[in-house]
Amino acid sequence: MRSDSSNQSTEKGKHNRLDEINILKNIEVGPPAGSRTSDNCSASVQEGWLGHVDESSVAVNLRSSGKSSLSLMPKERNVMVDDSSSSRNGGEANSLTSNLENISFAAKSGHSNDANPGRAISRAQYKPEKWMLPEKAEQSLTQLNLAIVGHVDSGKSTLSGRLLHLLGRISQKEMHKYEKEAKLQGKGSFAYAWALDESAEERERGITMTVAVAYFDSKRYHVVVLDSPGHKDFVPNMITGATQADASILVIDASIGSFEAGMDGTKGQTREHAQLIRSFGVDQLIVAVNKMDAVDYSKERFDLIISQLGAFLRSCGFKDSSVSWIPLSAVENQNLVSAPSDFRLFWYLGPNLLDAIDSFQPPTREFSKPLIMPICDVIKSPSQGQVSACGKLEAGAVRSGSKVLVMPSATIATVRSLERDSEACPIGRAGDNIAVSLNGIDGNHVMAGGVLCHPDFPIAFAKHLELKVLVLDGATPILIGSQLEFHIHHAKEAARVARISLLLDSKTGKVVKKAPRCILAKQSAVVEVILQEAVCVEEFSKCKVLGRVFLRTLGRTVAVGIVTRIVEEQQ
C-alpha cells in the first residue's frame, strides 16, 4: 500500500513517528496510527517509508471481483474490449523512515520548492462544491482498501478466496467449479486461490501475477481486497496494490523453513513487502500467521514469529499498537470469521481475522481537495469513441458531466459515466476505486501512468527532479551517472543520476557531506535525476501519491525516496 495524504508541510508535527527509528524511518511521512490521511493534497503530512518497485511493468492490470462472480479487469495496459460493452466485465533492524524528514530542502539546497509558482492556482484557494462532499446522513459503509501482501506461497490468494466464500461473495456453485478444475490439474489445494488467480498462466504456475480485486462487507467497512503477488518478479504489480491501500494484511507462512525463507534478506519477500506497504503510508497492519495447522497450532512457533518479525516491523516504523497478530489456517477455516474451533488453538483469546479488520481506524479522505486520480488501467471501445480510465480517486470528487484534465496530454475531457465495484455509480469520491468513461478525447491521449485532475489545478509534467532518497541495505552504491529505473505511481522511466548534492546523517537527517561521489547502502542523500521521458509528478509536500519514487536496477530495488523539487517542468 496506498496511501493517502498527498500534501506535506516542511514542519512535521510532534506525532511524526517519534518512536520510529533507523533506516526505514528515513523516507515517509504519514499520520499516526489510526489517523492516516488519504494520499492526497493535505496541508500537513508526515513522511512514511517509501518502498521498492520491480522493472517489469508498473501499469498493472487489476482484476475485479463482482458481487457473486469474479469478473476480470483488463489484462493489458491499454485493453481493447468488445464494442458492445463500454464497462468492465466483470532489513535488517535499521528503520527506513526518519532521517529524511529532518531536513528542509528549501533551506538546505538553496532552491525554491516550486519550479513554476505560476503554473496553477494555489490548492489552498480551491473551494469544493456541495455535491463533492459526502452527506453526513449517509449510512453507507466506509470503504477500506485492504492490500493482501506477503512472501510467495504464503497463502494470500487462498486466504482471500476462503474469506470471500465464507462471506457469501463466492457462491457454493462457483466454489464447486473451482474445486473441480483444481483437482483436474492436480492442484486441489489451490481451489480457493483460483477464485482470484483466474488466468491460465497463474493457475499453471500456481502463483499470483497481477493484482486481483474483490469486495466484501464487514460490520464497519466495505472492503476492497487487493490480493497482491508475492513473487519477486512481480514486485511492480504488488506496488500497485500497496499504493492504493488504507491498511494491509501481511500473510506469513508458519511452516518450518517457510517463515525463515520469507525473512531471508536477499530472496525473501516478507521484509520487502513490509517495507513497501509502510513506505506508502500504511500504518495499520494485520499479520496473519497462516498455515498454523502445519505446525500443530504451536504457540511456541507463533511467539517465535512475533518475536522475530515484530522487531523488523518496528524498525520499519510500525507501532506495536497498530499491528494485530492473528494465528489462523485458511485451508482449515480456523480463526477467519469466527473463533477457532480446533482445540489446539485454545491458547489464543484474541479476535478473529474479520473482527481484526473491523478494528482498523477509518481512513481520512481528501474530499475537499482538487481532483487527482492516477491512471492504472485504460479500457478502449473504438467504435463508440469511448475510453475509460481506471484507478483510485486520491483526492476530490467526480460525476457524470464533470470536466477533467487528462495529463500528460493536457486535454480536457467530459465524464460520460462512472463505475465502482463493477456497477454504475453517480459520484466518485476520494478513496473510491473507479472506472471513469470519458467523452471528447482521443483514446491515445489517455494512458496508464497518466493522471486525471481538476482543469484549474493541473499536475506537473517533468523529467528533471530533485529527490531525497535512501539506499537500501544490501544495495549496490549509487554513483553520479548511474542508470536506474525510476518508478512513480503507475509510471516507469529510465533515469540517470545527474547529481548527488548532499549526504545526510541516517539518524538526524543533518547534512554530513556536500557533493559526495556516491551513496552507499543505508545512506540517505539528496540527488538530482534526469528521466528519459517526462512523467506526471508533484513534490511530495504537495501530493504524496505523486511524490513517492523508487529506484531499481538489475531486478532489485536499490533506493526509495520522495520528490523534493521539480527542477525543470515540461511545457
UniProtKB/TrEMBL annotation:
The keyword Nuclease does not apply. Residues 11-22 have a biased composition (Basic and acidic residues). Keywords: Cytoplasm, GTP-binding, Methylation, Nucleotide-binding. Residues 1-42 are annotated as: Disordered. Residues 1-10 have a biased composition (Polar residues). It comes from the Eukaryota. Residues 141-371 form the Tr-type G domain. It is found in: Cytoplasm. GO terms for cellular component: cytoplasm. The keyword Aminoacyl-tRNA synthetase does not apply. GO terms for molecular function: GTP binding; GTPase activity. Pfam families: GTP-eEF1A_C, GTP_EFTU, GTP_EFTU_D2. This protein promotes the GTP-dependent binding of aminoacyl-tRNA to the A-site of ribosomes during protein biosynthesis. Belongs to the TRAFAC class translation factor GTPase superfamily. Classic translation factor GTPase family. EF-Tu/EF-1A subfamily. PANTHER family: TRANSLATION FACTOR. This is Tr-type G domain-containing protein. It comes from Gossypium raimondii.
